[in-house]
């Protein structure tokens, strides 16, 4: 089958991890993948729109990623696509945690419902997102059996990483340990909410430092920050040079839609992880096995102190996390789900076109 993806931008994290990463596996199975970014002002890109229309018409499957497109653009895509899939990995039906208007938006909810109800297949990044999409289906389609052939399938396809890209951390330091946080400026606000905790860590453990892999840096009063500008070419080495991965999320509905990419990256790099137990972070980090949960400043300090003093513990937990990623969240597992979907769509298409 020929798959065409419509993404926000070709270098967007969702496009890289939830579509482009599967290209080698799809091509090995005889499929093809073509990825396009959405045009900006459509009336200024008439020729590009025509070329895009032709590309969509040639596709056996069109995948729209994340975008809550307006009514007429959705009609345009729906008219061109033989089969339409909608892929999302955030609670895009809500405003983000830091929006002063609050999380709930009727406009976003309506557009999300329209995307789900117009798609033949919905690909959700975690169970919470899958449930939110399923709630929008007509009652007779929810939980329909395979024989009932519901018009919209809602499938769980977790965000995955390729552990072969990540050299495992060595864990030789017994002092002057390095915490690491990776993300973008849009999610850096979560780390900024940890200022008091991070400065408390720096005050209690003067040798501690934070490696920040991002497109923007922050300054802390008591904890030294080593800013590493994010690059796809260097991110895995920057992670492997650290000792402990950290992540904090606000306890709200937006965070329930997060698919745990930074935690998966820490685990792929063989790092123990300290998180607050919110959303998928609670599922990914097993306390005492792959890292620790921490909510209060005291719990954060206890977890970081225990790990920073014990390289053998860091190594053991990091290895356990890497094994879990390889077993459950490796890109091979995501590709297998995609190949299963394409096989079912191909079989259905063949049955529909077979002579009676």
Defining key terms:
356 residues; alpha/beta; Rossmann fold; 6-stranded parallel sheet; 16% strand
What is the element layout, followed by pairings?
Elements lengths: L1 E6 L5 H6 L4 H6 L3 E6 L8 H13 L2 E5 L5 H10 L3 E5 L17 H13 L2 E4 L2 H8 L18 E4 L21 E5 L5 H5 L2 H10 L4 E6 L9 E6 L5 H6 L3 E4 L5 H4 L4 H8 L4 E3 L4 H5 L6 E3 L3 H12 L2 H18 L2 H23 L3
Helix pairs in contact: 8-13, 11-14
CATH architecture of the largest domain: 3-Layer(aba) Sandwich
Q: What count of helical segments does DSSP give?
A: 15
> What is the overall pLDDT average?
92
- Percent helix, as a range, is 40-55%
From the N-terminal CA to the C-terminal CA, the straight-line distance is 23 Å
Shape: globular
Count every beta strand, where a strand is a DSSP E run of 2 or more residues.
12
How many domains, in number, for the residues? 2
Largest sheet, if any?
6 strands, parallel
The CATH H-level homologous superfamily of the largest domain: Response regulator
Structure classification: alpha/beta
């Amino acid at each position: 089958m020929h798959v065409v993806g419509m993404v926000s931008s070709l270098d967007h994290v969702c496009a890289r991890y939830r579509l482009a990463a599967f290209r080698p596996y799809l091509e090995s199975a005889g499929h093809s993948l073509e990825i396009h970014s959405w045009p900006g002002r459509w009336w200024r890109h008439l020729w590009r729109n025509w070329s895009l229309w032709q590309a969509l018409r040639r596709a056996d499957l069109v995948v729209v990623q994340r975008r809550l497109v307006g009514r007429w653009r959705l009609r345009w895509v729906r008219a061109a696509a033989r089969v339409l899939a909608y892929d999302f990995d955030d609670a895009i039906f809500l405003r983000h945690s830091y929006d002063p208007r609050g999380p709930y938006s009727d406009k976003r909810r309506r557009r999300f419902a329209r995307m789900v109800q117009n798609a033949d297949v919905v690909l959700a990044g975690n169970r919470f997102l899958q449930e939110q999409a399923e709630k929008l289906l007509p009652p007779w389609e929810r939980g329909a059996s395979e024989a009932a052939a519901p018009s919209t399938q809602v499938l769980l396809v977790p965000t995955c990483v390729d552990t072969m890209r990540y050299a495992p951390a060595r864990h030789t330091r017994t002092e002057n340990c390095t915490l690491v946080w990776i993300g973008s400026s849009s999610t850096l606000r979560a780390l900024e909410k940890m200022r008091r905790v991070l400065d408390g860590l720096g005050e209690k453990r003067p040798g501690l430092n934070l490696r920040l892999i991002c497109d923007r840096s922050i300054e802390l009063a008591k904890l030294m920050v080593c800013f590493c500008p994010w690059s796809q070419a260097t991110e895995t080495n920057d992670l492997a040079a650290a000792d402990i991965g950290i992540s904090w999320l606000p306890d709200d509905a937006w965070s329930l839609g997060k698919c745990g990419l930074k935690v998966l990256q820490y685990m792929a790099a063989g790092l123990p992880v300290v998180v607050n137990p919110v959303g998928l972070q609670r599922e990914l980090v097993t306390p005492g096995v792959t890292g620790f949960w921490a909510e209060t400043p005291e719990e954060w300090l206890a977890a970081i102190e225990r790990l920073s003093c014990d390289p053998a513990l860091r190594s053991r937990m990091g290895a356990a996390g890497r094994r879990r990623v390889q077993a459950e969240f490796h890109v091979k597992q995501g590709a297998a789900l995609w190949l299963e979907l394409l096989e079912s769509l191909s079989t259905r298409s063949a049955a529909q076109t077979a002579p009676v």
